[in-house]
Design goal:
The complex is a heterodimer of chains A (306) and B (367). Chain A has 306 residues and is mainly α. Chain A is built from twelve helices and two strands. Chain B is mainly alpha-helical and 367 residues long. Chain B has 16 helices and six strands. A two-stranded antiparallel sheet of chain B has the order 1-6. In chain B, strands 2-3 form a two-stranded antiparallel sheet. The two termini of chain B are 24 Å apart. In chain B, 43% of the residues are buried. The chains are: A mainly alpha (306), B mainly alpha (367). At the A-B interface, helix 4, helix 10 and helix 12 of A face helix 7, helix 11, helix 13 and helix 15 of B.
Chain lengths: 306, 367
Amino acid sequence: MTIFLQATVEGLSLAAIYSLVAIGFVLIYKSMDVLSFAQPALAVVGAGIISSLAVDRGLPFIPALLLAIILTGVLSLIIERTFLRPMVGEPVFSVAVLTIGIDILLRTFLDSWIGINPRYLGDPFPTYGTLGSVNVGGINLKYLEIAALVTAIVLITVLSIFFKRSKYGVAMRATSFDQEAALAQGINVGRIFGLVWFIAGILAAFSGFFMTGGFNTLSQFSFVKALRALPAVVIGGLDSIPGAVVGSIIIGLTQGYVAYYQFQLEGIVGISLGNGFSLLAPYLIMFVILIFKPDGLFGTEEVERV
Amino acid sequence: MRGRPNLYTDYSKESAIFSNNTQKVWFVIVIISAIVFSFFASDYWLLLLTTAFLIAVASWGLNIVSGFAGQINLAHGFFVGIGTYTSAIIGGIATSSVIGYELDMIIWLPLSGIAASIVGLMIAPITVRLKGLNLGLVTLALVFIGSHLFSNFKTVTGGAGLGRKVAKLKLLGVDLESGIQIGTYFLDKNEILYLICLALCIFTGLGVKNLIRTRAGRAYSAIRDGDIAAEAIGINIFRYKSSAFALSSFFGGISGAMFFTVSGGVEPGTFNLLYSIIFVAIVVIGGAGTVLGPLFGAFFYTLFPAFILVAIKALEISEQSLPLNLGQIERILFGLFIILFLIFEPRGLWGIWFRLRNYFKAWPFSY
């Protein structure tokens, strides 16, 4: 039972991290019909900026975190203005490939900066408790994981209030519903696109921090971690924010359980599943779900005109 | 019809592989100069062009499924990997850790393509059901599943980080590894590989050119332009979509088998996401849905690092003084080219070539 709870907690905290990136994906997809492969790279860039400010420049951690998050948002905004603006109305696939190009650019610069040794983010989380964790009834809770969960819940609540209540939130929903009609109502669609990318950048930076904070460290492989938010989005449906959250929970929990129960699972299946199978499990689940529900669990079915 | 090369009096002439004499002449000139090149060039350039030919073969494969049939495939590298390991099993040398049967190239080359296309067909029930971005994402999952399998089947691949030797170069019982003597001329290993890959490239190119004018080729374009409409006029979507995947994987498999035979060894980590993305980028940079495009793209991809090197040498910059190493500069420029081509020239290098050709066709009359 302890192991089960431990796996659940770890899975949920992973889900929190994924859901932040995933919501960014969905926001961009909903408003612009663009699947941005650059999102994982942005998450890692956010972590990189934190590390460079807090460790290399010696800034206190909290200002460094806030500054880095805003800078990542601005970077994301710049990407939208320079590279994606000329591509409005182009085929979905072309734009997706373009974001892959952006991803290659960001990652190459970042990888050369990170170097071979993993980098720390200079956050105080490892110093709390025993090695950054507290033991509650046999379950090892990391402060970083708790922080990730709380932050994700707070951010998601704030965002949903923003979409329901604020002027720009409503404008965003209108834009994602029908661009031309939104334009006709006097909504500045270009500004909405910028805002969406800005928010997505901020969310990516948050998740980047929780992915690489504490003892997790930032390395050239951190990117692969962030990329696992992609199956979460696909499972939930590319255009559904609740879907993104549910998808993230599914992915996070699967990863957590498989990591702890792989041995038993191999006993049932009868074959060795190999090292790091828990990292593969999200993609397998996505594979299976897409076979039965091509638009994801919560996605709206696409109606096509011939 | 002399003097009026653009006048076609019947359909078979217009849809011929070479629709006019100019094309025929240029084709022959290019092939002859490519063959002659092999006798003069240094090993470095030979190897570079050999790689370019093989990448072109793989890109043509991807172009069939993505360019002609319009199905997004981000897992082409996975199929290339299947081909590579098939050839490594059949043609490779067995060691204490990996299996291999040391068979002839005449056996492993086709089989590596066939194995890849069988895998392509196996996933067809899934890929046919999906389209657009969802298909792209499923193939993305395939990349990760593939690299997991590759790094865990240690008896086949040697395991992550270690890798294995690939197939031996033995064609019809002749060992090509040490070169062969033809009359008074001695062909060494690199020249032989160059010529084999050149032949492979020519056959694939002609094959693709031929494919687009067959029934299947027309069906592919119809599916790309509107799959529901295509189904309505009686095209069997399942058959053609899955055959496009199978064909594309076939080319990928063959190219992978040869590619790693040229480079000597293969490590499972090679077939990561970036490896698959490179093929997509080559097709996009070259010009998707054209016959010449992937060839241009492949040459661009293999040759531009060499030109960067030449440029750095010419400008007399020492490699140490650069803020990034060469591989990183290559990757950054590659990423930039993807972005710039998509924004400014969506038809890719082929589009540039097309406009240049049309400009000089009527030169100096620009109207």
